[in-house]
Structures are given as structure tokens and as C-alpha cells.
Amino acid sequence: MGQTSGFFQRLWMLVRRDRFRSELDEEMAFHRAQAEKEFVADGMTPRAARLTAMRQFGNAERLKDRSTEVVSFRFETVAQDLRFALRQLRKNPGFTATATLILALGIGASVAIFGFVDAALIKPLPYQDSSRLAMLFESNTLGPRFHLSYPDYLDWKRMNKTFTSLDVFAPYGFTLKTPDGVQQADGASVSAGFFHTLGVVPAVGRDFYADEDRQAGARVLLLSHSAWQKRYGGRRDVLGQTIALNGQTNTIVGVLPATFHFAPAEPAEFWRLIQPGPDEQMRGSHNLFGVGRLRDEVSFQMALADIKTVAQQLEKQYPDSNRDRLGLMQPLTEVIVGDLRPILLVMLSGAALLLLIATVNVASLLLVRSESRKHEISVRGALGASAGRLLRQFATEGLLLASAGSAFGVAGGVEAMRLLTRLAPNDILAKMPYLLALGLNLHIAAFAVCICVSTGLVFALTPTFRLGLSGLRGTDMREGLTEGGRSSAGTLWRRFGANLVVIEIATAMILLVGAGLLGKSFYRLLHADAGLEADHLATLRGQATGDRYAKDAQLIALEGQIVARMHGLPGVKSVGVATILPLGDGDGITDFRVIGRPFHGEHNEVANRRASPGYFQTLHASILRGRDFREEEDQTKPRVAIINRTMANQYFPGEDPIGQRVAWGYDVKTAMEIVGIVNDLQEGQLDAAPRAAMYVPYLQDPSNLFAVVVRTSQDEQSLLPTLATTIHQIDPGIAVFDPETMGERIHDSPSAYLHRTSAWMTGLFAAIALVLSVVGLYGVIAYSVSQRTREIGVRMALGAPRGSVYGLVLKEAGWLIGIGMALGLVCSLGAATLMRKLLFGTAAWDAGTLAGVAVVLAGAAMLASYIPARRAAGVDPAEALRAE
Amino acid sequence: MAKKNDLLPGTLDMLILKTLTRAPLHGYGIALSIKRLSEDVLTVEEGSLYPALQRLLLQGWVKAEWKQTETNRRARYYTLTAEGRKQLGLELSEFERMITAIGRVLQDA
């Protein structure tokens, strides 16, 4: 007979399981009765006969079990174990709830952070073979990662030997003509092969044709999927429709897939084919970033060497424009998520530490519980449960606990992910499009299962460790059966449990120090000297395009109107106009020369800003020397400039810059006289190093793209909508965007966001860790006191004062706290050194933070041990001795 | 647990099948029969017959039936099936082969 009939027989047996058992019982009883009868016939006393028959038969319960196992399915014992485990857990709702909650916290934190790690670092970017893509830059005297010019791009494309294709994009957005007036629209200009290089195929319509950008008048664009949905309701007939971008008509030829995103240019709704104009003919006009796909056999080093060679050749060929411009390349993934990696790894480590504490905490709860279950285990062993069966039972209980914790943890973690992305400012989220797909996926599920199984195993092994294999095998079963027997295991547990608590305290210390350092960094960052007073400042950007603003005079008139109208608003104290506001991306770089100095073609790059007379005054930036721009200083007056302190120190060391004459590299004939030195305004992110910057009067060189900053005596937030209406009252055709207060600009800046998030997250982890470790310590000390009640009673009966009992307990706790904190101190210094990169204005060895953490942790820990100590001191000696 | 005279693994099934070749027997009868025939050398932990019997039943090598004993008690009698007889043949020849092989090794050494 084969397997099948065995299966059906098993099934049949399963249905008649009760009958099967009763028949087996009867059969076995019959057997023993017969044997007994035989022994009596041989002359034994009935009692002796019965005992001998039973002995000869063996352990009936175990044999019945084994017989049942033969005919039952494997899952039946598992189900039985599960039922028993559930009953055990239900019997102790307090224990179960506490353990599940603690675990859920640990697992939830890990899962949530892992979700971000997965979205940013593990999941490949939505391009074909994304690891073979590189982003190309030129570097200059100011630093790395600057733009290419269009002619440089064409030469790079022609001369390189390591890329299968090389393309460029300019992520600067457009003005969009809509029925409601002109708006600012997010988007990028890209070369024809851009999507082909990325390996992205439009979901609707077509890609740009190869070399379509070389054809005159090819004005075509692709829509992002979200723009298609939002602006066109996802209609198919969108192809062939036209859009007016930057005053030019473009035809929609396709829609990109929903999964597509390209962080360096996001947010982007419109992907327009680049249209080489006059700017694109100039080698000195840098406004493009390169994207290239490496040839199969080429490594990143080889490609980098290749483009460096190309850049050197161009430098030789075009010394005027290309001097000091080197080729630079980074893997695209690195450019997109490189900045995020250290922060995410720190947070993941934090979450892992929290999980460690949670696991240790639950494990020590299990230890205490297994102490009280010693009797039960012995009874089960005596009744015939095999060691394997008992082990399986523990494993089932451990896994069940871990599963419950994981289930809640994953649910909480996924919710936390959603919450965290919702808390992120929208424009920052837009720059991290890969986070939008955040949510439960296979990776996260697999991660959760791994955690669940490993914690489950820890919990399965903990009681086994405590009881010892010998305990399960039954040699000290008798000991377990005699209640109240004090074995060496008591001390063993105390030692083991104490070790666990040392780990908890050390881990909590690491997390607290990390949180402290990150918190301090964040504080330092927000209070970093940006050279301005950020309160009561409202800002707005605008773009005036079209025939009405083709001439400088028109733009100057517009500036005059804006300033005048804004001044008239209630509460407004002063108004400034500039091309680019402080605390931006630090871009907008031009090279300059000092007139009268020998020139060898060097490129001295500085931030190039144009500012109105009221600009510095509005920001409360201090003019260190010389003077501010004057109201009447327009194009009829001699050209002037104000430089910042860094530029003065860098380019005029030991000289007085005031009165010196400088010129932009592209326009060497128009010299400007330096009339003032302004204290450094932070033009880049808050944590950027100070950079040289030069300001020229807006009225001498106005711009279509401008920003207004207003200082008010009232609430700056409520002023923001008024600013936009004021400009639209002048001309509804002016696109206005990015209304924000200077405070928002600081708080919502990418660097502040990253610092804030990491500080808050680590802070949260540290707070949970602190609570868990203190509770864990309380548990150990309280248990130790309960075990030592008799000893304490004896001591007190022999005359020990209450104070010495306090001392006894607190000394034990003090040791644990001391060792834990010493260990934690060493580890946290190591951890702090590892995350040095994330710290701003704070040393890894920050005495204040370390001292603060030590005081908090030691205080909380001593408080936790004081409670059991007081209970110990309150022991009534007579009661304690009688209790035995 | 019985430490001495432990049966070779797998032999219990064979012994049970063999004792059933003469006549159907109940569990106690099988134990008694093995004990007597082996002249008290093979004393199995008697209870361990029952898991073994369940295994044989499941394989279809024996059949079970409740009957009255001579003393008018109800007992489960096990009968060898044709399948069981074939299995016994297989196991016996396999066992012979083993014993001969072991014997040869022992003689040689």
C-alpha cells in the first residue's frame, strides 16, 4: 500500500481521534490486566503484581502519545503546541501584553527605518541597469560638482571613449502660460538621448528622436505621469497638444511612466527637449549636468580617468573659457542617495540597538517567568514529556510571542513610515521621489520575518538556557518538584539576568549620547550664524517674462513699483530685492578678475548676486566696512560692488579691497569699484562652509528672475499671501512662487530637515531605550530582592540596621549601573566618532552631552533601584523567616 | 527504560509480523509469544508494542478486530494480511543477509 492510503487512514483516524484513544486505552488496560493476572497466578501479592505489570508495560501516557503520533499528521503536534502556548500566554495577560508591546516598539522602529533604507538604498532606481549610470560635472576653483557648458557637452560626447551614451539636463523649470496668468512650472530641459540613456521608455507616445535637439525649431516635450494626471486627467488625446513654456509653444509627444523619477531634476512636470540658443553657443555659459551610461567592460575609475583626459584636452584647446575646469563623475546612485546614506545607516543602527534592548528586555521577562514555571516543567517531564517535546514547546511559545510582536510592530512600522513622510516638507519630499513609493513590500516583509524568527529563537533558547538541558532531561527533576528548593540556578540566573541588564544600560547610553549629539548639532545648525536676522522676514520669488520685460529699464521700473507698493503695506519696515536669496543651494557662480592685477587666465569663482539698496538693511546684514548701495545708484552711475568678508580675506589678504576695481570674467570691460564689505551671508545650506560672494546693484543689472524680501513688524506668515497679490496687482502676468518666511527657509531647508529628522528619531529611540532599560533594571533588582528576602530577614534579625539593607541593594544596583555606563561610554564614543560626519558644530567627544546623559541615566537607574531597596528595607524579619 | 537486550532497530516490526503468522493474537499475546519463543532473552518494554502495531496497521500489513477472549473479555486481535506476509518475507531475507554478512566479518576478524 502506498502513501495515499496512509494519508486517508490518517485522515480517518483524525476524524475518530477520541475513539482511537479510548480503544488504545482499553487495549493497554487489557494488556496490563492479563499480565497482572499472570503474576498473581505465579504467587505475587495483588499489589506487587499490579506494580510489576505497570513497570513492565512502561510509561502508558508516553506510549499512547507515541501511538497517536504514528497515526497523526505532523501539524497536529504543532497545533497542540500552539494551543498550549496560547493558553499559557492568555493565562498571563500582563506578561503577554508587556512583552508584545516592548517587542512591537523595537520591531516597529526597525521596520520603519528599514523601509526608508530599502526605498533609498536597496531598491534600484527606476532606470535600466541603474548601477551603470554616472552623473558628470565640471569642477572649478570653488569646488566640485559644477555645470557643463553646451559646447563642452558636445565635445565630451564626441571625445570620450568610455560611455555608450552621454546626455545632459538643465533642471531649472519654466514659466507656463495658463488661463489664470503666468505660473512657475517645475521641469527640466534635456538633450534628445536623455531618456534613452536612462533606459526609460515613455508610457504613452514617443521618446525624443535621436538628434532631434539638433533640428532647428523642434519644440517638443514629454509630460511626467503626475502632470498628465493632474493637468490633463490622464486623457489619451494629450499627444499633439501644445503648451507655452518660457513664452514658446511646445508640442506634447509623450508621457513618462508612473514609476519614473529623476531626483536631480525633481520636482519636474515638463521634460522639454533642449533648444540650443545663444547661451548654448558660449563655452563660458555653464548650466548643464551630464548623465552617461558606461560601456559594459568599463569601470567607474576608467570612465573618470577618461573624462578627466577629455576635460584637460579642452582646457588646452580653449584656455580662455576652460582653464581650471576639470572633469568629474560620480555614480548616479551616489549623487541621488549618497547624502542620505550616513543618516539612514545611523538611524538603522539606532533602531537595531532599540530592538536589541527590547529583545533583551523580553528575554529577561521570560527568564523570570521560566523561574516560576520550573515546577510545571518538572511535572511535565515526570509525566513523560521528552526533552525534544519540551524544547519544541518553548520554541513555539517564543515564536508565538515574536510573531505577535512582529505583527504589531510591522503594522506600527508601516504607519510610522507614512507619518514620517507626511511630516516632511513637500518640496523636500519632491526632491526625494524614491521615498514616495514607501510602504509594505516584499523586502520589508522578508526583513520582518528575519527579525521575527531570530527574536523567536532567542526567546525559545532563553528558558532552555535557564533550565539547562539536564533540567529537561530530568536528572534534577526531583529538585524542581520539591517546591522552595533553592538551587545554584538562582545565583546563575541572577548573574545572567544582571549581564543582560548591563547590556541594556550600555545600549541606552549609546542611544542617549547619539541623540544628545544630534540634538545639539541640530540646535547649533538652526542657530548657525547666517549673517542675517531671520525673524519677521517674508520672502517671495517672481519671474517677469515676455515683451513687457525685455529691456533693463522695464525691469528697473518694475523693481521700483514693487518696492514702493510693498513699503505701503501695513507693518512693513523695509523691502529688498535680489536675484537669489540667502540659504539656497549656493549656486549662481561667476568668475571675476581684479583689474590691474596680472591675469594668467585663472578662474576665480564667486557667488554672483544682485541686490537692491534696501536688501542688506532688510536682512539686517552688517556692512563691515565702506557703504551700502545707494538709491540713486542705477545704470547712469559708475558701477559698484560689495564683497563679503570671505571674499575680502581670500582675494585681498593684507590689502584694502575698498576702492579696488573688479570685473566679471565674461564682461571684462565693465569694471566695478568695490565700495563695501558685508559680513558673510550664508548663500548655501546652513552647514555649508563660507564662500566668497560678490553683490552688485540690482538697479545696474536687473534680472527677469528675482526675489523679494520684506521685514515686517507684524506676523510675517500672514504677510505671505499679501506679497503675491501685491505683485499681481502690478501685473498679473508675473509668475510668483515659493512664498515663505525666512524662518521656514531655515527650518524646511534640506539640511535642517535631515538634521531635525535624525535628531528626533534618535531622540525617540533613546527615550524608549531609557524607559526599557530602567524597567529592566528595576525587574532585576526587584527579583533579586524577592529571592533574598530570607537573607535580608536574617541580617535584620541579627541586628543589621535598615540603612545597611538599603546599602546592600543599592550597591548591587550601583555595580550594574556603573559597569553598564562605563561600557556604554566606551561604545558611545566609538559610535559618535563613526557618525562624526552628521555632527555640526559639535565634537564627537562633547563633554556637556556626555555628562548630561550620564546624569539622566544614572538618576533614572538609581530611582528604579530605590523602589525595591525600600521594599527590602521594609522587610519584617519575623515574617521573612516564617515564610519559608 | 530497558537498557539491556534492546532490540536491533527495526526488528520489533519483524518479530510482531512473525508471531502473527501462526494465528491472530492480541497485544498481550504477541508480547507473551515473543518472550516465550526467545526464552526470556528478548523482553521488550511491552508497551512499545502498541506504537509499533499502529505503524503496521497504517502500512496495511496487519488488520485489527475486536473479539471476545476465552475469559469473555473484549480484546483487539491482530491478523497478518497478505501484504504483511510479503513484507515479512522481504524483511526476513534482508535480515538473513545482514546476519550472514556480520557473521562473516566476525569470523574473519
Describe this structure in words.
- Chain A is of the alpha+beta class.
- Chain A contains 29 helices and 25 strands.
- In chain A, strands 1, 2, 3, 4, 7, 8, 9, 10, 11, 12, 13 and 14 form a twelve-stranded mixed beta sheet that branches. A six-stranded mixed beta barrel of chain A has the order 17-18-23-20-22-21.
- In chain A, strand 1 and strand 2 form a beta hairpin.
- In chain A, helix 13 (340-372) packs antiparallel against helix 19 (488-526).
- Chain B has a three-stranded antiparallel beta sheet with strand order 1-3-2.
- Mean pLDDT of chain B is 82; it is low at 1-5.
- The interface between A and B is medium-sized, with 27 and 25 residues.
Proportion of residues in helical segments of chain A: 40-55%
Helix percentage range of chain B:
40-55%
Q: Calculate the terminal CA-CA distance of chain A, rounded to whole Å.
A: 63 Å
Strand content of chain A: 15-25%
Average pLDDT confidence of chain B is 82
Number of helices of chain A: 29
Strand content of chain B: 5-15%
N- to C-terminal separation of chain B?
A: 33 Å
Largest interface (CB within 8 Å) is between: A-B, 27 and 25 residues
Give the number of DSSP strands of chain A. 25
Q: What's the assembly state of these chains? A: heterodimer
Biggest sheet architecture of chain A: 12 strands, mixed
Class per helix and strand makeup of chain A = alpha+beta
Largest sheet of chain B, in brief, is: 3 strands, antiparallel
What is the number of strand segments of chain B? 3
Shape of chain A: elongated
Briefly characterize the structure.
The complex is a heterodimer of chains A (884) and B (109). With 884 residues, chain A is α+β, with helices and mostly antiparallel strands.
What topology emerges from the helices and strands here?
The complex is a heterodimer of chains A (884) and B (109).
Chain A (H helix, E strand, L loop, with lengths): L2 H13 L1 H25 L4 H12 L2 H12 L2 H18 L1 H30 L10 E8 L2 E4 L1 E2 H10 L3 E8 L3 E5 L2 E5 L1 E4 L3 H5 L5 E2 L14 E4 L1 H8 L9 E4 L2 E8 L14 E4 L12 E9 L5 H18 L1 H4 L3 E6 H6 L2 H33 L1 H9 L4 H37 L2 H6 L10 H32 L3 H5 L6 H39 L10 E7 L8 H16 L4 E7 L10 E6 L9 E8 L3 H5 L3 E4 L13 E5 H7 L9 E4 L7 E7 L14 E5 L7 E8 L3 H15 L4 E7 H6 L2 H38 L1 H9 L4 H33 L12 H27 L3 H6 L2
Parallel strand pairs in A: 7-12, 9-11, 18-23, 20-22
Antiparallel strand pairs in A: 1-2, 1-13, 1-14, 3-13, 4-7, 4-13, 5-6, 8-11, 9-12, 10-11, 15-24, 15-25, 16-24, 17-18, 17-21, 19-22, 20-23, 21-22
Chain B lengths: L10 H9 L5 E2 H11 L11 H11 L2 E7 L5 E7 L1 H27 L1
Antiparallel strand pairs in B: 1-3, 2-3
